[in-house]
Design brief:
By secondary structure, the chain is mainly β. Helices cover 1% and strands 40% of the residues.
């Protein structure tokens, strides 16, 4: 397909590679056919190699209908095997992920010949198209190519992330919706359900006077120096009084801004990509600043720091203030 999928309220408007309608192509399912639970399979050529593999792709899962989106899964199936009996689940995502292309990364340990199979399972609505683009598999010749640090905030230790004791507000680990109506996500990004966790900054606190610009800072563990790393994470900025979210790299007490957004961007999770280049031990600092009112919760989830250069980002939402 080289333009938006046929059904309104679902599918991308253009491919990921070029981002231009009618120029680039992608592959997709069409949920206007079939019933809930029916599947579409896409099988790769046979892979037979003596080293680990890095498998990357961009996916699009968007529906404007409640629970309209189904599930997208990636399986590894040995040659001669069957998906039902021998398939190994490598990756899965359920529910609408917003009208955006999202990057995915899987490391496949060395093994005998196999095929990779994408399985898209239809949801409850005709507005539930899956799309894929820019699929790539390369040799992972060294362990340095693999994922280094990641955190989905599903464990109470927060993967070693800590609060900055000098800020005015706090990051809070949360399940489900935030306490204030009209702001914040309704579920985490990892699972998309009430059981998943994420971190957020609450902008309304009972009996506590708060000011515009008050901030909450979340600090990562200390990581060793590196020349090329890529930070990816998901963020949610929704509400009439959303302030700003900034990400810094902290070295020897100095903060260097690497990414920022301001204002409400709608009730959805978005993916952020930012390069990290350091010559000393460092930390990543997430700083959420309060806007001019109580409806301005800011949330983050699924933080990954990966060796290597950043992927080409997909189209990001326009910045509003």
């Amino acid at each position: 397909q080289n333009f938006r999928t046929p059904t309104p309220g679902t599918g991308p408007s253009a491919d990921h590679t070029t981002g231009i309608e009618y120029r680039g192509y992608y592959i997709h399912t069409d949920a206007s056919y079939g019933d809930q639970g029916e599947q579409a399979w896409l099988t790769s050529p046979t892979v037979d190699t003596s080293v680990d593999q890095n498998f990357t792709f961009w996916y699009h899962m968007y529906s404007n209908r409640f629970n309209g989106m189904g599930q997208l899964q990636l399986f590894l199936v040995p040659v001669g095997g069957a998906l039902a009996d021998d398939g190994s689940l490598l990756w899965a995502k359920s529910g609408s992920q917003g009208d955006q292309w999202i990057y995915a990364y899987v490391v496949i340990p060395q093994q005998s010949a196999y095929n990779l199979v994408f399985v898209g399972t239809r949801g409850s609505s005709i507005a539930g198209d899956f799309a894929l683009d820019d699929i790539d598999i390369t040799d992972a010749e060294t362990s340095d190519s693999k994922l280094e640090y990641d955190c989905d905030f599903e464990t109470p230790d927060l993967c070693g992330y800590v609060q900055d004791e000098t800020d005015q507000l706090q990051w809070t680990r949360q399940q489900g919706a935030t306490p204030s109506a009209g702001t914040g996500p309704s579920a985490d990004h990892t699972l998309g359900t009430d059981t998943g966790h994420y971190m957020y900054m609450e902008t309304s606190v009972d009996d506590t006077p708060l000011n515009q610009g008050d901030a909450a800072r979340l600090l990562s563990p200390r990581y060793p120096a590196t020349t090329t790393m890529c930070l990816t994470f998901f963020y949610h900025m929704y509400g009439t009084n959303v302030g700003s979210l900034r990400v810094f790299v902290k070295q020897t007490g100095t903060l260097t801004l690497t990414w920022s957004k301001s204002g409400s961007l709608g009730n959805t999770w978005y993916m952020a990509v930012a390069p990290i280049v350091t010559d000393d031990e460092y930390q990543v600092v997430f700083e959420a600043a309060r806007g001019d009112g109580a409806f301005g919760d800011i949330a983050i989830d699924d933080v990954d720091i990966v060796n290597g250069s950043c992927p080409v980002p997909s189209v990001t939402p326009p910045q509003t203030t």
